Amino acid sequence: MIGTAILLFLIIAITDATGTTPAAHLVPFVIGLLVVGIGMAWGTNAGYATNPARDFGPRLASFLTGYEGAFRDQTGYPYFWIPIIGGLAGAGLYQLLIGRFLPSAVPQEPGELPAPDRAEATRG
Hints:
Elements (H helix, E strand, L loop, with lengths): L1 H14 L11 H16 L9 H13 L17 H16 L20 H6 L1
């Protein structure tokens, strides 16, 4: 869950157009380094499921082919939902800690007054 939350938090931070992002041609490389770094830090020698698509899909295929315990780990705990919750937690933390302080990306119409920043609206 923590690895998935970190992954989604940093992917949103890297690709958010209202913040400072790397050059467009470097974004895939930076995200690849991010995945490798999280895998080396949080992964085990049996693999790591930081992406729900890498975890839920194989579990579903295993279950449909006859492995009835595919949605449980070796101790019997139903682990399949944890990467999904981790992604939601990472996205929520980004919005809570960073996203609300960034200026709005909505373009202004000519002659309109600028809209207040999200940061000013949350401060009071």
